[in-house]
Amino acid sequence: MSRRTTAAVWVKGIAEMLAAEGLDARALLIAAGIDPAALDAPAARLATEQISRLWELAVERSGNPAIALAQHQVTRPAAFDVVGYTMMSCADLRAAFERLIRYLLILSDALTMTMEEEPGGYRVTFVLFGGERPVPRQRMEFIFVTVIGFCRWICGREVHPLAIELPYPAPADLAPYRTALRCPVAFDAPRNSLLFARVDMSAPLPTSNPLLAEMHERFAGDYLRHLDSAQTSYRAREVIIRRLPDGEPRRDEVAGELCMSERTLQRRLEQEATSFVQLLDDTRRELANQYLGRLHLSLAQAAYLLGFADQRSFFRACRRWFQLSPGQYRSQLQLHAVKHPSAS
Fold first, then answer.
1. Which among 202, 198, 10, 206 is positioned nearest to 89, based on CA atoms?
2. CATH code of the region 231-343
3. Which terminus of the chain has fewer Cβ atoms in its 10 Å neighbourhood, N or C?
4. Judging by DSSP bridges, how do beta strands 45-47 and 121-128 pair with one another?
């Protein structure tokens, strides 16, 4: 499985927030295995495990499990790098999210985003991969407040989601969530998601500029093409994640959604040292690691979300992935959560 990374410019925003909260950001970075100088290095990227460790340490040393929400009123456009410019020049917020999804690989290949229209508006769903380390809830909460803050900044007005879903248990103190997010938050949800009103997503952006949009698109496209990260496998993974709850995705379905033939998809994945079967299996394994850590999800629900036809298939896959049954692996994750409460 390939190593997942995030752009150092995003982590710099985290470090600045922690410093503003009175923490020794430099010491935290070093303790997490991150060279502070890397945050200013052009095109530097950091392992997803290091970022999770940074948040674990921040919670431990601050004693504040809601620290990711602490600077919610601060806008961090620099954290979006060149992707932010493409978003700003779009016609509306819906198009801006489409650009964020299209160029997200520039910021991170550990995060996947999808957007779907619903009767109530547009739901943006996030899947964050932690690699060999559990993802602390603070990582996702910081992503949410940073994305929401950037939306307000480019809209030039107050924009708040209609609802937020977080797949973690409700904290004892809900006040920081009410203050920072200012909308209903559903905990123990099956996903990480933001629901935006249709009127907010379709309102014209004051920063919209078609000429600049074309220029920024070219620049972001060139940036994306020069990344070492595997692009086809990343895009295929997006489709797989979206289709899994409807059953095991077929290669021809994924190829069609990527507007290429099966043969082309197969060839490009081979060039990126993987295959469709391997990519599907890796994606399921990483998602299983997350779903089994969510106690409110039954094993049957986890199997469904992973696209398995029945629980026996899920059982066999877990034996192959973790050398444990789903129930045994869940118990192991619970034990880790008790020993490392900041990671839950």
1. 206
2. 1.10.10.60
3. N
4. unpaired
pLDDT at 332: 87
77 burial class (0-12, 13-18, 19+ CB within 10 angstroms)? middle
CA quadruple 20, 24, 29, 35: dihedral sign: positive
Q: What is the pLDDT of residue 227?
A: 67
Domain regions of the chain by residue span: 5-202, 231-343
In the block, which residue shows the tokens 């950091």?
A: 46
CATH class of the domain at 5-202: alpha beta
Number of Cα atoms under 13 Å in the Cβ half of residue 320? 10
State both tokens at 28: 């935290």
Q: Using one digit for the tens of pLDDT, what is the confidence trace for 145-177?
A: 999 999 999 999 999 999 999 999 999 999 999
* Tens-digit pLDDT profile for residues 211-230: 888 888 888 877 777 665 55
Give the C-alpha distances (Å, rounded to integers) separating 219 from 85, 164, 296: 10, 32, 44
Per-residue CA distances from 208 to 53, 93, 167 (Å):
38, 10, 34
pLDDT beneath 70, residues of the chain: 1-2, 226-230, 337-344
What pLDDT, on the 0 to 100 scale, is given for residue 315? 95
Task: State the pairing for strand pair 192-196/121-128.
Answer: antiparallel
The DSSP code for 4 is P
* Residue the block writes with tokens 């008790």: 338
Q: Report residue 214: phi and psi, to 5°.
A: -65, -40
Query: What six digits make up the tokens of 288?
Result: 């299983």
Which amino acid is it at 267? R
What single-letter amino acid sits at 147? V
Taking only the tens place, the pLDDT of each residue in 177-208 is 999 999 999 999 989 999 999 999 999 999 88
Structure tokens at 302: 């986890």
